[in-house]
Design brief:
Length: about 90
Amino acid sequence: MDNVFTLTEAKSKFSEIINRIIYRKERIVVTKNGKKVALVIPVEDNNFIEAEGLSQARGVLEDMDDDIDEMVQSIYAARKAEKGREVDL
């Protein structure tokens, strides 16, 4: 694959890789010991990924408001009922 570089290759061809990302909008994979360890992408792609992730997360907890309120109330009740213990100093 043209978009895969070993870590050693990536170090020696860093400027070339950056230019490919800037001008060709390529995504570059870096490997170490045969395993994929990094993905270098154009900044525009990252902004899209972040925005997409946030929009997918929106509303996930909205149905849990009552459950969260109930948990908080039970925590406060347990704290209030807690009897301290003496500590020897």
